[in-house]
Write a structure and sequence with these properties.
Shape: globular
Number of strands: 16
Number of helices: 13
Distance between the termini: 50 Å
Strand content: 15-25%
Order of helices and strands: HEEEHHHEHEHEHEHEEEHHHEEEHEEEH
Helix content: 25-40%
Structural class: alpha/beta
Bound molecules: pyridoxal-5'-phosphate
Largest sheet: 7 strands, mixed
Length: about 450
């Protein structure tokens, strides 16, 4: 099918997410392999976003494709009340790679559903009604998950889930409490404790956090003592800690799970995406022994047709084997260090870069109009963006240079599949470097307009 025909049929019959439908221009994808995907005209893109930060083992990994095919021949589906070899095996493997005593899994169909289950389980086990989430977060688009989400898209779902509270996050580049790293006393943690007291600790079931927050909310890594402090706070008040690792899990940050960086074991871990390398939809809610024990004598008041789907389970087993056998988590840690070093070099060169940050192959370039005021390069705006806007031009330079990456009004995220090698990484970064010249021009124009110096 020709490029335009694919796009036209999609635009006529499919509702696209998070967008006004008019003016969209989707790339028709016809083939993919490893780091790359191709459009219907044969143009190749290096996928510096791993699609939605989810094909961690690379596109069309042959071992995962083979496992899905093999399972399809044997058994595609059995209802969740049955036991299957692949579901049990995958849950066993998950218990081996997740932190601490997270040993029992409920399977879902994706990230948002995992979050829904996590909050239901936390409420069922504690008997408490409220959940604390954070601003600058994303937890999914279903009603409960978007209620927890801490950014402007939540507003379109409101009034959302009752009992949802939002605390301020450790977004150190723009600290809510006016601190710099040198003066910080983790006011963001103390503020959560204050919130707990005002809201009555006996009514709070859980605190849910992205362990490393994803790009839509800014991609930021908490200071090293943040998660241990949050764990201690939860323990003090008998509140459950839910680690949302839908995006940050499966080697993305250079460890199996981002919580491993701080040796913190949440009570519940939510995940999806990299679990099956996104080759079949699947999510997971992994619970501690304490919760599993509770469930021995208490009914899990929930269920879903596709839980533990056999094709997805086969993909999950194969994906975990690939992460382990091909040392992709080690590669993420190694190349993540290279990536950050290169981004620091870019920052030294480009006046529009306010900060670069990240962990493993999960990094962010934050663009500003002015480094002193840290004013964002462009305000947040509903897409599709004006094709003449600076960010659209940046996107075009990337696409023309064969790079696909998340480009948002004030940031560029870099999250390639963990199979990338150093030469491919540097090649892609060279294109990004060139594209940021456009952001520098925007800064210079803004400075001219205001008569202020750009730096
Ligand atoms: C941290 C986090 N939680 C939940 C979700 C929702 O996952 P899904 O899109 O599979 O529903 C996402 C998706 O990006 C995510 O990044």
């Amino acid at each position: 099918m020709a490029m335009n025909d694919i796009a036209a049929e999609n635009l006529k019959y499919v509702l696209f997410p998070w967008s006004k439908q008019k003016g969209l221009n989707p790339i028709p994808v016809v083939k993919a392999e490893g780091l790359y995907f191709w459009d219907a005209d044969g143009k190749r893109y290096a996928d510096f976003a791993s699609q939605l930060v989810c094909v961690n083992a690379g596109h069309q990994h042959p071992k995962i494709v083979a496992a899905i095919k093999e399972q399809a021949e044997k058994l595609c589906y059995a209802a969740p009340s049955f036991a299957t070899e692949v579901r049990g095996r995958l849950a066993h493997m998950i218990s081996e790679v997740t932190p601490g005593d997270l040993n029992k899994t409920y399977f879902t169909s994706g990230g948002a559903e995992s979050v829904e289950y996590a909050i239901k389980i936390a409420k069922m086990v504690t008997g408490r009604p409220k959940i604390i989430a954070r601003h600058r977060s994303y937890h999914g688009a279903t009603s409960g998950a978007i209620s927890l989400t801490g950014e402007w898209r939540r507003a379109y779902n409101e009034p959302g889930m009752p009992g949802t509270l939002h605390a301020y996050p450790p977004y150190c580049y723009r600290c809510t409490f006016g601190q710099e790293p040198s003066s910080c006393k983790r006011e963001c943690v103390s503020a959560i404790e204050e919130m707990i007291q005002y809201e009555n600790p006996d009514f709070i079931a859980a605190i849910i956090v992205e362990s490393v927050t994803g790009p839509t909310a800014g991609l930021y890594v908490p200071p090293d003592d943040y998660m241990p402090k949050l764990r201690a706070l939860c323990d003090k008040y008998g509140i459950m800690l839910i680690g949302d690792e839908v995006m940050a899990g499966w080697g993305r940050t250079g460890k199996w799970f981002a919580m491993d960086h701080w040796n913190v074991v949440p009570d519940i871990l939510t995940t999806a995406k990299g679990l099956t390398n996104s080759m079949v939809p699947m999510g997971a809610v992994v619970v501690s022994n304490k919760i599993a024990d509770h469930m021995e004598d208490h009914t899990l008041w929930s269920g879903s047709t596709y839980s533990g789907h056999a094709l997805a389970a086969a993909a999950g087993i194969a994906a975990i084997n690939v992460y382990r056998d091909e040392k992709l988590i080690e590669n993420s840690a190694k190349l993540g260090a290279v990536l950050l070093k290169e981004l620091e070099k870019m920052k030294a060169k480009h006046v529009s870069i306010g900060e670069v940050r990240g962990k493993g192959l999960f990094a962010m370039i934050e663009l500003v109009k002015n480094r002193k005021t840290r004013e964002a390069l462009m305000p947040w705006k509903e897409g599709p963006y004006d094709p003449n806007s600076g960010m659209s031009k940046i996107k075009k330079v990337l696409n023309d240079g064969g790079i696909y990456a998340f480009v948002r009004p004030n940031n560029i995220c870099i999250a390639p599949p963990l199979v990338i090698n150093e030469a491919q990484l540097l090649e892609g970064l060279a294109v990004i470097d060139k594209a940021i010249d456009i952001a520098d021009q925007m800064v210079e124009q803004a400075a001219k307009g205001s008569g202020a110096a750009a730096d």
